[in-house]
Amino acid sequence: MEALVKNKFKTQGMMVVFFLIMIFPFLLVSIWSYQYIRHDAETTFNNNLMRFTHNTALESVSRPLEEIGLIFEIVASRITPKDLDDYIAPQVSFLNATVASMVNSFKFFDNALLADANGNVKVYPEMDLTDFILHEREWYKDALYKTDIEYSTAYQTQWNSDNKTKTIITVSMNLYDDDLHKFGNIAFDLNLESMSTILQDVVVPNNGRFLVVSREGDIVMSQVARDLFNKKVPTSWIERAIEQQGNFYDPQTESFVFYRIYNNPDWVAFTVVDKASHAMFATKAQNMLGWVILVSLVIYAIAICLFRIYIREIINRLYISVNGIACEDGQSSLERIYYSIKNSRDELKHSHEELNEVKRISCEDPLTGIGTRRKLDEEMETLINNNTPFYFAIIDLDNFKSINDTFGHSVGDRVLKYTSKTGKAIMEPDYKLYRFGGEELVVIFPGVDYDSYYELMETWRDTVHQRNWREMELNVSFSGGMAAWKEGDGMSDILKRADDLLYAAKRSGKNVVMGTPP
């Protein structure tokens, strides 16, 4: 009785261990995937927002700034000291129409201001300049000794057309004659609301916001016009924007911030996504995977219960078959049946495994799944003995040693497997592939239709060459040679001709298949 109890618990323990072993890889992969998928989502999130910030800053800010710079270059190249004096006098000057046209047609400008070296000023649209002193304007003092286009910091003015105090930014450039003597200055007040309209159609990923701020923290461009100069970003954002572009997390505002800086003007473009939106993006796939794992575990538990019922039924039937009576104890009976058939089962299993292994080694290459060299020799010998015409094609992966040395042998194995798999998909079931050795693969084409065979080889070569690999710098191609069997040829003869064509293809620059048409 004690022996039966021991056998029962031994069998139960074996079943528990069996089920644990079955589920362990699934749990291991599930836990790893659950953690990795969040990391991958966060990496994707950062890459997408960095790319968006760069592209939007380029299209919505850099492009208008380039247009403004071009206008300054055109105007500065055409203005002479006399033109400026006539315009300010005022007298008839081509500048009257030019300045008016620029302000009216270029939506980024509110006003134009032209001044000579003595501080005499003319503004378009015209307005009362009785109390206006050019040298008191902060931007003018900063730009006075500059030789390039200068963007001012934000400042307030009361002399605009609606006579209301307004915060503006002025862009200006000094004018020089042929002897590089400064004879004046041209400036435009920017209409930042009009510049911000470019952002109206911009859709920021993950419910984010895109805005452009000055180094003082003032918002100068935004999708929301009322934010201009009315709101500021945290000072810490400006202080942390030190590289050309980058990103950081701000715990105070609970925001993920991506930025790109400009040198002239001294502005910073920000894309801001709140923590909740980031978490939603980062955990979406993770939550879906969690549900999949949970459902899989439930299905696994149900399967265990069904399996136990099924095993008990099998045990009863086996016991009846062996002993002629129904078993009273399924577990102990399983032990008895096990010991009675163990020897014969082990012998059959061992013989079956040896037979399968011998068959696999002789007929199928374990890495690529295509025929072996031994199988190739058998097929060629049969064709030659039967005087069956055929074409023999051999390929060799280009720079395969360099691929192994640069990316590792695991990548080299993937390349070899992909090339073999692609060849099988194109050639089979009509023609068979074999691994000749190393990175050399072979195809036998029974028949004499050279053009069709060559077209298949070209399709194979082009498909492999066009593949985009996960390794960005990895380029894969192969060279090949294809020769026809001639009556009286042995295997070595046809192999040599195909091999000579292969090396000719290599010498010609690789990634080509050479053949001998009939």
TrEMBL record:
GO terms for molecular function: diguanylate cyclase activity; GTP binding. Its cofactor is Mg(2+). InterPro entries: dCache_1, Diguanylate_Cyclase, GGDEF_dom, Nucleotide_cyclase, Rev_trsase/Diguanyl_cyclase. The keyword Iron-sulfur does not apply. Residues 388-518 form the GGDEF domain. It catalyses: 2 GTP = 3',3'-c-di-GMP + 2 diphosphate. The keyword Cell membrane applies. Keywords: Cell membrane, GTP-binding, Membrane, Nucleotide-binding, Nucleotidyltransferase, Transferase, Transmembrane, Transmembrane helix. Pathway: Purine metabolism; 3',5'-cyclic di-GMP biosynthesis. It is found in: Cell membrane. The chain crosses the membrane at residues 12-34, 288-311. GO terms for cellular component: plasma membrane. Coiled coil: none annotated. Gene3D superfamilies: 3.30.70.270, PAS domain (3.30.450.20). It is a multi-pass membrane protein. It comes from the Bacteria. Its EC number is 2.7.7.65. This is diguanylate cyclase. The lineage of its organism: Bacteria, Pseudomonadati, Pseudomonadota, Gammaproteobacteria, Enterobacterales.
